[in-house]
Amino acid sequence: MTLIPPSAFTEFDAFTAALDGRIPALFLDYDGTLAAIAPRPELAVMPDEARAVVQRLAALCPVAFVSGRDLDDLMSMVAVDGLVYAGSHGFDLRGPDLRRQVGVEYVPDLDAAERLLRDRLGGIAGALVERKRFAIAIHTRQVAPPDKPQVGEAVRVVAEAQPRLRMTGGKELFELRPNLPWDKGRAVVTLLETLGLEGNGTLPIYLGDDETDEDAFRALAGRGIGIRVMESPAETAAIWSLQDPAEATAFLGRLADWLAEG
Ligand SMILES: [Mg+2]
Q: Would residue 29 show up in a list of annotated catalytic residues for this protein?
């Protein structure tokens, strides 16, 4: 449905009623969810206030970050010890007692695609090719609007030359990743199993703002709660919403207070 689901912040009491006594297991996207989108990925810094809230929550319930960013990049941006981190859309998982990588055999395909992309996009001002271990992001936020279709066309040509990869999109970016049945949703389900969070006493809650997060909302349908961070109506499988990263941080703060009160 295309709409804005009810706000988990302004309708916080109804939200906590839906927890029904279960302990949340929090899965958090980073960009656009806790860190405001910025012109370049390295400028999308999570405010200290959000970091403090995440630290408080981590003492109260399981917390994992699930991002399209490269794992090392994600861990250095969040910089909270002891959490579970899933980078490259969940292809790269790491936690205190966890290490798992999906699609290692696709790295040579990504290497070849990266070379082709750098060749083809070198002449387009503002086109940023960002290599992650298990994906390549092509950012268009700083490309002049008339040049943007050219970037999309170049990425499509490279995707066609690399049949073991598939092309996806997001906010102002294209992405190439292994053509495997794997996404943020599968990563979250795997993490629930691996971390022993499948029981009835736990309620998975996923916060995300973008198309790739919809895979997680769908994967959790019927067994968890999706919260989409969104300012305008969009097609979503999430059942709750939050307006922006500032409201998401305020919501998580309230959730921490509520959990601390027991
Ligand atoms: Mg995001």
A: yes
Residue 191's Cβ-count burial label (10 Å; 0-12, 13-18, 19+) is buried
For residues 250 and 127, state if they share a domain.
no
For residue 222, report the distance from its CA to the centre of ligand 1, in Å.
23
- pTM of the predicted protein model: 0.93
Of the three residues 144, 162, 178, the one that is the final residue of a domain is 178
234, containing H or E segment: strand 234-235
Both 89 and 193 in one domain: the answer is yes
Marked catalytic residue, from 13, 29, 147, 210: 29
pLDDT digit string (tens) for 61-117? 999 999 999 999 999 999 999 999 999 999 999 999 999 999 999 999 999 999 999
Give residue 126's domain range: 104-178
Å from CA of 37 to ligand 1 middle = 8
Measured in Å, residue 174 CA sits from the centre of ligand 1 at 14
For the beta carbon of residue 10, count every other beta carbon within 10 angstroms: 14
